[in-house]
Amino acid sequence: MKLKIGIAITIFFTGLALGVYFFSPHTFHGTVIQSPNPSFDFTLTGADGDVSLSDFRGKLVVIYFGYTFCPDICPATLANVGQALRRMNENQSKNVQLIMISLDPERDTPKKLSEYVVHFYPSFIGITGSNEKLAEVTSLYGIFYEKSAGSTTENYTIDHTATLLVIDREGYLKLVFPFGVTVDEIADDLKYMLR
After folding, report:
1. In angstroms, what is the C-alpha Rg of the chain?
2. Quick check: is 19 in a domain?
3. Which of 63, 120, 128, 144 has the smallest number of CB atoms closer than 10 Å to its CB?
């Protein structure tokens, strides 16, 4: 009798521990945003014409602001997102769309952007627009950027916020990843958001 009670107690506490493990809330690696309003729906230009945020409703959209001449931060960030998508199954990865918005329309043509981003992952999209349009989009998404003079008029850099913004399937900004987030952390949060 004592043995049966001992086994029952062990099973109960094991089940309780497993239940706590399986039903505990997800701990996000980025900053969770609880916006009451949908994200600003912008339209910019890609290699195949106009691209709007709302074109991807039903998918998670990861937005990154950068430029192709960026020496280190942009390629590192795009590479991490590409690797994160490769760690997801096909059904998950096809429901995530990365959009890189170039802050350097003088040098980054839509064609050049398209050729650049697909080096990191085949489905990535690169878009840009006029300086006025970019100023509007960046201000609404809280992105800072500023051109820094180089040794020549064409050899300049752009200081910019290097976060990843994640828009959920309904069009709401839900998560902001800081620069330096790891491949595993990106994959973990995106997988959870796709559940």
Report:
1. 21
2. no
3. 144
140: nearest Cα among 38, 68, 20, 48: 38
The pLDDT tens digits for 18-61 are 554 456 788 999 999 998 899 999 999 999 999 999 999 999 99
Residue 115 in domain: yes
Give the structural domain span for 38. 28-193
Residue environment code for 125-137, b if the CB has 16+ CB neighbours within 10 A, otherwise e: bbbbbeeeebeeb
pTM: 0.86
Count Cβ atoms within 10 A of the Cβ of residue 157 and give its class: 0-12 exposed, 13-18 middle, 19 or more buried: middle
Q: Report yes or no on 72 lying in a domain.
A: yes
DSSP state of 28: -
